[in-house]
Design brief:
This protein is of the alpha+beta class and about 625 residues long. It contains 27 helices and 16 strands. A hairpin with a 5-residue loop joins β4 and β5.
């Protein structure tokens, strides 16, 4: 097996965002310039795991593991480097020449999936081109612009148009695409004779992407709605690359935004997501059609700690909110909390943005956010005449069951106070009723069934990686070595200044090794990349050392006096270590010659040197 060329490895590594890959396994939150979360490699309660998307590497301040995307997958899945490279390549649809892979022949399904992704990419570009650049697409373009879609939004979501002319099949046949592949793609319907026809005709096309941003399906909105015999919306059928239960519209973009905002908004439709995006709400997602599934709940739980359900305020919308809350409560990850933003009856988010504008929409989302308890205390009134005593009693019993699930005693008391005031009831009696309901329902005070009542974690209170690094004690010499290496890696002038002294070497072996490996790296590369250099380091202790160096909070402006100070501290320590080693060698030789007088003299000198060394260490640690 030939070694995978460096340029192929670079292409594969640079094709992904390390934050996206790690974000599938670790819930990450923005903390300054970096992302942070709980380390997947050791148990911890306070986040110490840091991901630097700019430099494309991770580092844990707790267990000191560090590396690029390949090393993360190797550590997490216990696979070798080649397997990690293959996994990232497959994820990004990048071919690795067979001569570089010591493995079994590719499975047809993997090749098929890659080909299906390519088909959808080609179809997306074709539909997008027709929409923007042809007379056939003008009616669809007019429709979208009438709906408030700018060309920037159309480009952002790769919207397109499938014309009446059924052009996709001839386009693929011209490119000699295999019939069976087209048949499996979901892009065509098949008649009784086995002939394929374009599935999407006279429809505005909404590409559906997976979590990595690859198009895996389409949803088509009928442009001419007078054709009542056809469905208004038509989705791709399930295929080897598309499972609607596991797919969320705009997740690839929204999950990145959620790291900063701490939440995702669940909207009902694609146009709601797109209009919200145009209004600056980039963390919106939508399920496929009206279905919201437990698989999607799990996916959301891996992306964020809070989900805001933002549906229409009419009766169908409220019923949909109820179903969504129940689904999350039944299947939610432990940390996922739910809140509700209910729009006025008869208006959806898309219509709200078009009618009132972006600023008012953003303000509404912020100011109208409510807990699930608030929602249910209002929702349970629907269809009831609260002036009728029997219906009032039914409502109160249902409302108290909701309050019984509230974990916070203070919050529960607030809701009881509200009910007491509105219906002129004794609050203590209501509290007694709630306690009885909790006993009957077996509700523990420590396990809320309505997670939205607990406060979100405030990650801004956690120390940033730099703050955490400052409390770790290392010697003055080691700190000087780290700082010097940090500048040497990033500044060519500093590198040349240090290497001009051929006798220079670092005191600690790991930094000397990094220095030598960096020299080899620079002989092959003109500039420095952290993620690239990590591939040169095959030992975890070296990766950890580089991770520590990269996390140093140093001035970007190079001060050569500070560089010389570091060199002085390092070289001051080096002769002493050399002298001790030399004295020890002389003492060993004197003892072998049975020269007692010389051995005594050398022992006295060695003790003095050892005392000097100990004194320096004491000074460094104080």
């Amino acid at each position: 097996m030939a070694r995978i060329p460096r340029d192929v490895i670079d292409e594969i590594r640079n094709s992904v965002d390390i934050g996206d890959v790690i974000g599938r396994y670790v819930q990450l939150h923005q903390a300054g310039k970096n992302l942070t979360g709980l380390c997947p490699f050791h148990e911890e309660k306070t986040p110490s795991f840091s991901v630097n998307e700019e430099k494309q590497f991770f580092y844990c301040f707790g267990c000191h593991r560090s590396g690029n995307v390949f090393q993360f997958l190797m550590e997490l899945k216990h696979i070798d480097f080649i397997e990690a490279v293959k996994e990232v390549a497959a994820d990004r649809n990048i071919e690795i020449p067979e001569q570089y892979i010591n493995t079994q022949p590719k499975q047809p399904v993997n090749n098929e999936i890659r080909q299906l992704l390519t088909l959808h990419e080609k179809a997306t570009k074709l539909y997008h081109h027709i929409l923007l650049n042809t007379p056939a697409g003008q009616p669809a373009l007019n429709y979208l612009k009438k709906r408030g879609m700018s060309e920037e939004l159309i480009d952002q979501f790769n919207l397109g148009y499938a014309p009446d002319q059924r052009i996709l099949k001839p386009f693929f046949e011209q490119e000699k695409i295999d019939y069976q592949l087209m048949r499996k793609s979901g892009l065509f319907s098949e008649d009784q004779q086995g002939a394929l026809n374009d599935r999407f005709v006279d429809r505005v096309i909404y590409p559906i992407k997976n979590g990595q941003g690859q198009v895996i399906a389409f949803s088509g909105r009928l442009l001419d709605t007078s054709k009542t015999d056809l469905p208004k919306y038509l989705n791709s059928p399930e295929t080897p690359i598309f499972n609607k239960r596991r797919t969320l519209f705009n997740l690839d973009v929204a999950k990145k935004s959620a790291r900063k905002t701490g939440k995702l908004y669940l909207f009902e439709g694609f146009m709601d997501v797109i209009s919200a995006f145009g209004a600056g709400v980039t963390n919106g997602i939508a399920s496929m059609g009206t279905s919201f599934t437990e698989e999607q709940v799990s996916i959301i739980g891996r992306a964020t700690n809070q989900l805001d359900i933002c549906y229409d305020g009419d009766e169908p919308g409220q019923n949909a909110i109820d179903r969504a809350i129940s689904l999350v409560n039944d299947h939610r990850p432990s940390q996922l909390q739910v809140k509700v933003v209910q729009l006025p009856a008869g208006i959806d988010p898309d219509e709200y943005v078009q009618k009132y504008g972006a600023d008012r929409f953003n303000n509404y989302l912020t100011n109208q956010e409510e807990t699930t308890t608030d929602f249910y205390l209002r929702f349970l009134r629907n269809g009831k005449n609260l002036n009728n005593q029997n219906e009032l009693m039914t409502y109160l019993n249902q409302a108290l069951k909701v309050v019984a699930h509230v974990q916070s005693p203070l919050e529960a008391d607030m809701y009881l106070q509200r009910l007491s005031s509105e219906f002129d009831l004794d609050r203590q009696t209501l509290k007694t009723q709630v306690r009885q309901l909790q006993q009957q329902l077996g509700i523990s005070n420590h396990q809320p069934s309505y997670p939205s009542q607990t406060q979100s974690k405030d990650y801004s209170r956690y120390p940033t990686p730099i703050e955490k690094r400052s409390v770790e004690k290392i010697t003055r010499t080691e700190l000087a070595e780290q700082i010097l290496l940090r500048y040497m890696l990033y500044d060519r002038e500093v590198w040349m200044h240090v290497t001009a002294d051929h006798a220079f070497h670092f005191v600690h072996e790991k930094y000397q090794t990094l220095y030598l490996l960096a020299a080899s790296y620079f002989s092959e590369n003109g500039s420095y990349s952290t993620a690239d250099f990590l591939d040169y380091l095959d030992k975890s202790d070296l990766q950890a050392a580089l991770g520590q160096i990269e996390q140093l909070n140093v001035d970007q402006q190079v001060d050569m006096r500070a560089i010389d100070d570091c060199i002085h501290i390092i070289t001051q320590q080096t002769p002493l270590a050399d002298q001790i080693a030399d004295k020890q060698a002389q003492l060993k030789e004197a003892n072998s010659l049975h020269n007692t007088e010389l051995a005594t003299q050398l022992t006295i000198e060695l003790i003095k040197l050892l005392k000097q060394q100990q004194q320096l260490k004491t000074e460094e640690t104080n």
